[in-house]
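Lecture notes, continued. The same structure-token format from the folding unit now serves as the input rather than the output. Read the line below as a description of shape only.
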């Protein structure tokens, strides 16, 4: 069980301030009259103490309080250009930021939960005792902003007034981090106090890149103090390590759902999108998928895009529906393989003078045009990337080819600039009504393209059983990695506690309109399903059909075939949907995709059973689901053999 405010509050101890009077003296000594006037409008004393202690600890030359005026945001953007953290590109309001060569992705080995003695924590998590983290912060963050400006903003993870929205402080010395945060989160300077009062808490995030030198990156740390809901980040700028409201605060939100809001809320690594069905009805989906498994593409396939990464979910007790909001209002997305064919809505934003875009770690060609691997355009003959000058055929010191852009190159932009974004629904504090929840993996040989759980327990088991290919860039690669709910890296506590919260939520008697819980798998290959060649059995645009069928099934418009793994579609219903997107869908392909490869599925069940058996206090419901499905599959195998056709399972 997580105990809040246990142990030393590191920020308060290193900052040294204990009272609001001490905090006000720090403000008076470090803020000019304009910024004093802005901070005076914040009344929450706990937040004021956090900010004052951050100033006392980091010792910046200047402090800039960001109100909710566009003038403040524009000032920070201009400073980012002037200091070189961002550089202008050919298209108006498009800029490029380069992280250090050593800082191109999440610094996993340098990211830790701060824990107290004897505190239970996920077996997947890296942890450090409070005393060790305390010493690091004291040694490295004291004075880390000397010569720099501290930027302080008041943000919300979700629309103002939404039940599951959580306010947060973002404190940073990086203008790039600040401008990115401005695109991704809602500025709630004017309503911060009321949001904290509504929510009952807020998160705190303190970051500084320091001198921003390559030699400092090995000493970088990203800390998450669960007990005090505070994140720290040093000596890096890559947004995955520094935009702490994202995955850092997502972990705190997972804790909140797991330990404080049981049977009330979930905090998930999920897209949210709506599909328009017959008669113009809207059906909303939330869906989890590991990196490289099509989450962003799936989100944008819908007619009503809400979000591509995170979801805060709760039960509306007034009508028994499951509701969801996107805690973000923008995208921080990978651009590799984003092109006109697969992602036209996103490409329109990236190639036209339409919106503010911040690129990171792409190639900039001689015409100041951003380029990346898989953009579908002719490869430039020269340019500049995060390693300096680039040309086709360039190799590194080991003779390995240097790609024109880093595989983790990103774009940051507002959701509102995307053509199919439903801003009215996304900003509604009531959230959208989620009728379907999906779990995807990158699975070349086992699960069918789409299936629906027969019970909430089986649905939770689908989420618990997500796997992804060992090598996400290679079609049909062997070996799988377990990726429970595509959220396990962001679950701070024991996985058993998180799973128990899932079972309690989806089985809650408060839910009157229970959502479908479904599995998706876009990655079956010909070689694993009796075909010729190694290519995929489908393609990106097929996602629209799988979601379209789920939309119809959720609303009772089509029937399904019951199997031991859940309900699967009938051929005739899928063919109509494929006709609707102008694509042939022969019965032979349906038969290949939806046959049950019993030995593969049982092997997968055994893999999960063995792995979960090593976890302490795991809910027994999971093993009951696995046992039941395995018994039913073995009965099918005894009757029909190792590969069971749809006709056989339907006729039994």
């Amino acid at each position: 069980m997580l105990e809040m405010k246990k142990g030393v509050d590191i920020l308060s101890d290193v900052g040294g301030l204990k009272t609001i009077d001490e905090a006000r003296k720090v403000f008076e000594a470090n803020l000019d009259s304009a910024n004093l006037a802005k901070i005076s409008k914040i009344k929450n004393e706990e937040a004021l103490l956090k900010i004052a202690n951050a100033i006392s600890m980091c010792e910046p030359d200047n402090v800039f309080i960001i109100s909710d005026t566009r003038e403040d945001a524009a000032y920070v953007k201009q400073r980012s250009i002037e200091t070189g953290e961002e550089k202008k590109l050919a298209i108006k309001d498009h800029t490029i930021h380069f992280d250090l060569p050593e800082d191109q992705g999440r610094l996993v080995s340098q990211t830790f939960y701060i824990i107290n003695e004897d505190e239970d924590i996920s077996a997947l998590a890296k942890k450090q005792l409070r005393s060790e983290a305390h010493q690091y912060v004291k040694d490295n963050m004291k004075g880390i902003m000397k010569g720099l400006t501290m930027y302080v903003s008041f943000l919300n993870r979700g629309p103002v007034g939404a039940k599951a929205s959580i306010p947060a402080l973002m404190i940073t010395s990086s203008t790039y981090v600040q401008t990115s945060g401005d695109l991704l989160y809602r500025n709630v300077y004017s309503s911060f106090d009321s949001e904290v009062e509504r929510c009952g808490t807020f998160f705190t995030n303190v970051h500084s890149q320091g001198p921003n030198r390559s030699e400092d990156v090995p000493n970088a740390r990203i800390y998450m103090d669960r007990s005090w809901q505070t994140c720290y980040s040093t000596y890096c700028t890559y947004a995955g390590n520094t935009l702490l409201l994202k995955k850092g605060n997502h972990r705190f939100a997972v804790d909140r759902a797991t330990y404080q809001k049981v049977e009330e809320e979930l905090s998930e690594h999920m897209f949210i999108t709506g599909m328009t069905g017959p008669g113009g009805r809207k059906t909303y989906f939330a869906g989890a998928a590991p990196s490289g498994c099509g989450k962003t593409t799936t989100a944008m396939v819908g007619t009503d895009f809400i979000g591509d990464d995170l979801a805060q979910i709760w039960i509306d007790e007034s009508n028994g529906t499951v509701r969801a909001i996107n805690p973000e209002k923008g995208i921080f997305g990978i651009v590799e393989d984003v092109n006109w064919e697969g992602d036209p809505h996103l490409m329109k934003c990236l190639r036209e003078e339409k919106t503010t875009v911040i690129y990171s770690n792409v190639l900039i060609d001689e015409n100041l045009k951003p380029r990346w691997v898989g953009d579908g355009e002719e490869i430039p003959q020269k340019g500049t990337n995060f390693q300096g000058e680039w040309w086709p055929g360039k190799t590194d010191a080991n003779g390995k080819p240097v790609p024109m852009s880093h595989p983790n190159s990103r774009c940051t932009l507002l959701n509102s600039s995307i053509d199919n974004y439903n801003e009215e629904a996304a900003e509604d504090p009531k959230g959208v009504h989620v009728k379907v929840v999906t779990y995807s993996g990158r699975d070349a040989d086992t699960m069918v393209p789409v299936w629906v759980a027969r019970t909430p327990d089986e649905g939770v088991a689908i989420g618990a059983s997500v796997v992804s290919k060992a090598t996400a860039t290679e079609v049909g690669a062997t070996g799988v990695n377990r990726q429970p709910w595509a959220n396990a890296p962001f679950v701070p506590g024991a996985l058993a506690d998180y799973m128990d919260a899932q079972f309690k939520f989806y089985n809650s008697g408060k839910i009157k309109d229970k959502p479908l819980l479904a599995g998706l798998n876009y990655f079956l290959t010909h070689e694993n399903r009796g075909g010729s060649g190694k290519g995929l059995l489908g393609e990106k645009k097929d996602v629209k059909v799988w979601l379209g069928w789920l939309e119809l099934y959720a609303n009772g418009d089509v029937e399904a075939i019951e199997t031991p793994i859940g309900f699967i579609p009938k051929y005739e219903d899928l063919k109509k949907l494929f006709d609707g997107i102008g694509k042939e869908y022969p019965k032979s392909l349906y038969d290949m995709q939806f046959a049950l490869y019993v030995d593969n599925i049982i092997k997968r069940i055994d893999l999960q059973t063995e792995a979960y058996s090593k976890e302490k206090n795991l809910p027994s419901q999971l093993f009951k689901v696995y046992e039941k499905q395995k018994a039913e599959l073995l009965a099918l195998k005894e009757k029909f053999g190792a590969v069971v056709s749809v006709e056989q399972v339907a006729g039994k």
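Point for the exam: The first helix runs from residue 10 to 15.
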